[in-house]
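Session log. Operator J.P. requested a structure for one protein chain; no other inputs attached. Running the standard single-chain path with token output.
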Amino acid sequence: MTHSRRVQILGVTIDDVLESEAVTRITAMLESGGAHQICTVNPEFINEAARNPCFAEVLAQADLCTPDGIGVLLAARYLGTPLRGRVTGVRLTHRLAQLAAERGYRLFLLGAAPGVAEEAAAVLRATYAGLTIVGCVAGSPAPRHEPFLQQVIRSARPDILLVAYGHPKQDLWVARNQPILQVPVAVGVGGVFDYLAGRVPFAPAWIRQIGLEWLYRLVSQPRRWRRIVDAVPYFCWRVVSTAY
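Structure written below.
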């Protein structure tokens, strides 16, 4: 039986799912028909939701919000509603590619810088034999480009659409376009294509295990400092202040 517990962190509801359970839920979505949206929620999502009511509504309406980021797990534990594990965008993308290769589902990669989606697709095809990727388009999250992208994606008929525009743009884009696209599963995956393509380095495993990916990113990508401040000290302050 699928675990269905949900946890609220600073007004954002997150599904308490493990990786395998998330894949089971997504498989059911693919088999049931209709259009679904999945969000991979990290501390930046939660902070953005407090500033952006439209984004908060998208998260509230999503069919699945996975806990992506060690900060989300630590916050849930501190607030007395612990989550059982992480479901990161990178790992979820790999699991969906594996599922698609095994069951014949069709993937479409949208977003990132020009050429990056193609590089990410090449890595996925090399990893998962028989994987069908029906489109790789950088595109743009700007609304004026939506009619063209809708035409391209609908013509390709994907079962799974991975959108890599970063939050909140990717998630707002999916919410606006899914009523027309009707892709069975659309997932906002942030910087996943950059990681798969080798454009951005992964933190070493031991750093990921102790929850210091944010520090690794700060050192390796100092231009991200504003985002890291938002995701770490500001988020921590918000969580701690709710207890008083």
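Operator note: The longest strand covers residues 36-41.
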